[in-house]
Amino acid sequence: MTEPVAKLIDVKKYYKLRGETVKALDGVTLNIAPASFMTVAGPSGSGKSTLLNLIGALDTPTSGEVIVNGKNLAHLTGTEQAMMRRDHIGLIFQSYNLIPVLTALENVEYVMLLQGVERAERKKRSLALINEVGLKGMEDRRPAELSGGQQQRVAIARALVSRPSLVLADEPTANVDSKTGGALLDTMAELNERHGTTFIFSTHEKMVMDRASRVVRLRDGRVESDETR
Amino acid sequence: MREVVTIGLRNLARRRARTALTLGMIFFGTLLIVFGVGLGEGTYADLIELATRSWAGHFQITADDYQDKPSLFTTIDDYTPLLTELEQNEEVAAVAPRVESAGLLALGNRTTGVLATGVDPIKENKVTTVAKTVREGEWLRAGGEDEALPIILGSGVAKRLRAKLGDEVSFVGQAADGSIAADLFTVTGIMNSGMLEVDSAAVMIRLDDAQELLSLKGRIHKIVGISTSISLVDELGSSLKLPGNLHYRGWKAVMPQLAQTIKSDRAGLWLFNLILLAVVALGVTNTISMAVIERSRELGVMSALGTTPARLVGIVLGEAAWLSIIGVGAGLAAGIGVNLLTLKWEIPIGSEPISYGGIEIASMHATNTVEAVIYWPAIILLFALIAALPPAIRTARMRPAEAIREG
Q: C-alpha distances in angstroms, B35 versus B22, B200, B336, B368, B373?
């Protein structure tokens, strides 16, 4: 059996909010196979973003185990977790989260800069992907000079350019029009097919769910359904 | 490293007013410290130079315990070779031999106790400025044996004896051979150094006359010297190979009160500088803390993208480094400029000049010493970076999701 790219075993994540305990995730167990193209769906507050944060080692669970690429994240130091994200995980945030003082090109190059990729190679790969997401000629603009949709495309290019084995995308098409969203999904689907990149989306959108090979539905921090197509 | 430099510099441009305020704080802090230290060091240098050149010299060489217990019999014997050796030393600018003896000086029926110093008129003039304190008459001149023996009186001595130029005074003391040392001298000058202890008791006679009078042929009590630079005094003391009974003492040992005064004043300057440093450090901490809080989300994203905690610390410190380098650099340049200006246009002290041992300084200037232009600016840079460390470390410790959520 193929080793799952990510594995969650009875994962719980509780927050304290104004003295109340909020159960963002309450005993989630999941195995995510390599080259998956899956979505995590559910209403607001169901725990979708929290799930992605835990798989991406952006947060720690209250209990349970999160294993990514065969490594239990609880056993990694902060530096090791950062290096895992840098080398294996691409992140797409709902609110873009570009670095404001860097241009579009520099934002896309950033992860490769951390990886120590040569300048010429960085630029070549970044420009190619910027072209692919339809932002040719805008590479020298800073995020404030780009529309929401354009920023999201830069964020997607940033997540994909370093060719990670796992991409975590939190509502990636929420702020782009359906045509752009469709084109971006095509790009990601192509990467999934061509390179076996695993994609995990959190989404409300039918368009994204329709393209997914697996849909996990969350409600109140629990897995409500897990459908493979 | 590139992103540390780029992001740090660009972030400073985001909040220009705050950056300008912090830069101003670092700039003025550095300027004040460079100027304050430069002024202090310049004033100390003037005080030391005036004090040493007026009488004590940069260094003195005496025999056995002469410095603590001056005695007619504690002498440097056969001193000429030593004097020649010192004169040939590259670090020695000039040396002068002295003979000292207490005695009584009388004019008519008036008598007073004096400390007679026998000096070589030419050599002494190269080492100290005592010749310039002669207000009436003239400084000692090397003369023939048949001339009347000249003597210069301190103004206090002259006043007590009611002596004037041309008067004949008699000196009585003890000679080194046990006999009575007595001779007649003609007053050729009256000096007024402004130093009470000198003017009230000192009289100057020629070295040869003193040696003859005190039966100290070929012997002296003291060699007073000037080094080529005051900073070489200690080094010179270590390099000289003196006979075992002779002792070298730099100006700090010769004038411990002056050394202590300067030491105390430096301590006060340190305290003032530390207060300025604290202000600068608080300014940097405040700016960096605010920047980190404001950009919590952005730093969280950088962490999420794979920036290691150490690199995040570097990015935050990069910003502080830019602030400090620009602020300290500008403050240092301005401070050096101000210090140079004071060399041309000295700062008048006002109606109350600084006074030490009768030596007065009516104006001050700042000098660009190593302390002023290297040590202290480096300390400010270090302080500013250390001040930025807590917010930088706090950032690196945050979970990326937490930082993004809080941003």
A: 20, 40, 7, 8, 9
